[in-house]
Amino acid sequence: MKKTQLWGAVTIALLTILGVQALMAQQPKSNKTTIQFTVHGNCGECKERIEEALDKPGIYKAVYTPETQKVLVTYNPSKIQINQLHNLVAMVGHDTELVKASNLVYANLPRCCQYRDRSCEDDF
Q: What integer is the mean pLDDT of 33-61?
């Protein structure tokens, strides 16, 4: 009788282990990465523009802080690359630490958002 109880306990233990492994295999792996990088901007309009530029598939969240000139981005690196994040921001007129916005796009920013010559700092 002891042998039967032992085999029963072993069987239950094995089934439990297999069940736990099956549950773990079904849980999706998190493919999120968070990075922070410098983006030049001045005001709330800049914040809205930068965050909107980063509201794309593969990007879960983007928060820009004008005071620190940093953007915090949580994204899926299998869907979007770091250089693409920088390019998205530069395309709306904001220089990053890797990509400079085109002069034409920059010139079309509202005056309060033109950060290169720092002339708008007097407006605050």
A: 97
pLDDT for res 124? 45
Query: Residues 17-38, buried b or exposed e (16+ Cβ, 10 A)?
Result: eeeeeeeeeeeeeeeeeeeebe
Residue entry with tokens 């794309």: 56
- 108 or 1, which is more confident: 108
User: Do the beta carbons of residue 99 and residue 71 sit within 8 Å?
Assistant: no
DSSP string computed for 62-113: EEEETTTTEEEEEE-TTT--HHHHHHHHHTTT--BSS-PPPHHHHHTS-GGG
Q: Tell me: pLDDT of 10 over 60.
A: no
pTM: 0.73
Instruction: In whole angstroms, give the CA distance from residue 92 to residue 48.
Output: 11
Tell whether domain 33-117 is in CATH 1.10.10.410. no
3-state class (DSSP) for residue 59: strand
